Amino acid sequence: MGGGGGGEGASGGPELSTDNVKGIVLALLSSGFIGASFIIKKKGLRRAAVASGVRAGVGGYSYLMEPLWWVGMITMIVGEVANFVAYAFAPAVLVTPLGALSIIVSAVLAHFILNERLHALGVLGCVMCIAGSVVIVIHAPQEQEITSVREIWNMATQPAFLLYVASVIVVVFVLVFYFSPLYGQSNVLIYTAICSLMGSLSVMSVKALGTSLKLTFEGTNQLIYPETWFFMLVVATCVLTQMNYLNKALDTFNTAIVSPIYYVMFTTLTILASVIMFKDWSGQSPGSIISGICGLIVVLSGTILLHVTKDYERIPQSRN
Amino acid sequence: MGGGGGGEGASGGPELSTDNVKGIVLALLSSGFIGASFIIKKKGLRRAAVASGVRAGVGGYSYLMEPLWWVGMITMIVGEVANFVAYAFAPAVLVTPLGALSIIVSAVLAHFILNERLHALGVLGCVMCIAGSVVIVIHAPQEQEITSVREIWNMATQPAFLLYVASVIVVVFVLVFYFSPLYGQSNVLIYTAICSLMGSLSVMSVKALGTSLKLTFEGTNQLIYPETWFFMLVVATCVLTQMNYLNKALDTFNTAIVSPIYYVMFTTLTILASVIMFKDWSGQSPGSIISGICGLIVVLSGTILLHVTKDYERIPQSRN
């Protein structure tokens, strides 16, 4: 990618390319915005509930009149856009795990602003997420320079990645048409697996589209290629399916159960897809790859810990 | 150290010297033996209690007649010796954190052999300890080759390390003579801080002594130097002080509180001492050092998690 200076040592030294740095900064900003948006929206909901006496949870819509709720909504959109752009600059192996930091931001802000006390083990979870993220960033792979959407197309149509896509589609079909009707309402893994599998394809197509748009803004118009429009179609399909089943999962099961399972499966599958499609690990030393995987395991463990212990504290308190 | 081949990449590649490999294997064996010894001893205690009808906790000594208890005791001694020898081969930055694995071994064995169910978060703690240990091993520094106890003496008498030793002694004196009588029985940090501070000096002197003995066994007699005997004296003094205050801490407070605090302080101070004395981090890239520190933080967090959640499960069960 353009101007990505700084040769990468075979063992994944600390030298990050300028594109990776941009991607990291965008991913961190995104986590900050998304994390903060939850708190701002909640503060808005509370204020609206006080003003009208009716809570959103029991059917009130007064929050739509509350400016603070809209500020939260806009903050969230800004965060999602930053996340989208981050994928255009840095590998998914780097951007996806950093998403865990939004959970920390919202947990810490909730502690100080909403007075939702953080459990001591939750603090440990935060520390782990940060330590794991640092290890991931240090061992981040460099991306190959991409100059046209056609190159991404070639990556997406290589046999290994087509095999991955085919497997995902088959598994999703089986889950949607066979397992969902039977166990969808009783087993939390069905809906979350569908979301996560589609999510890994979403991120890949978002990355393809993001890179095309980035190249277009840089002056080499990619909108003339049908591949760009095809990726746009894939993004829409995958994101809509993913959102649909995420909502089903959240409607059926407790958020505290769905969130960590979804996060772990989604992140793992996305990284698998990215490693297959973008060959993120080629040219990296075994030490770097293993360190990166350990960093990922730590972030995933930290996220689980934070979610599980969040629930510990909520039970005795009133939920609002 | 002798025959430590394999040049280390500036960024801490996966190539480990043969001495580091020996040190790692010894440290892992040590953790296995020490972890297993707890279980064997406990099994012996139970058997003795069944045979005599009196428990060790209420004053019985029948366990001394139980062969299984002695097998456990010998296993522990073998483990401690392996740990001692490991320090002669690999840096403390590498050996000390791997000690956490003994906690995993005993937790896992307790789960299967003693039927002490491991809490789900305890499993997460185990996973973290392993992931953190892998990161530490990958980024382990290479040791300088030491050919005589005089070299270690020079390291121990460099101004920076003398300053560390002086600070430790002053702080330990203040804690022992001023804070212990006042707060020793109420604040868990007093005794554990004394243990940990002395412990960091114990490990440094153990390492000095171990290296001297290793060189002696390899044919270059170090017992002719007074420095070797001086280190022996320091080992005895430090280890005895450390053990004395560890027993006081365990007598006064709950093991589940003392163990993680002690482990975190002891490991951190030992690594600090080792970094000052042996300059473990010189020649390492910032990325490697930061990765190593993150690995350490993860191991420490995992240990805390394992200890804290162990207590969660014990409360409803009978303690034996």
TrEMBL record, chains A, B:
Source superkingdom: Eukaryota
Residues spanning the membrane: 20-40, 68-89, 95-114, 121-141, 161-179, 188-209, 229-246, 253-277, 289-309
Regions annotated as coiled coil: none
Pfam families assigned: Mg_trans_NIPA
Assembly and oligomerization: Homodimer.
Function: Acts as a Mg(2+) transporter. Can also transport other divalent cations such as Fe(2+), Sr(2+), Ba(2+), Mn(2+) and Co(2+) but to a much less extent than Mg(2+).
Identification of the protein by name: Probable magnesium transporter
Organism phylogeny: Eukaryota, Viridiplantae, Streptophyta, Embryophyta, Tracheophyta
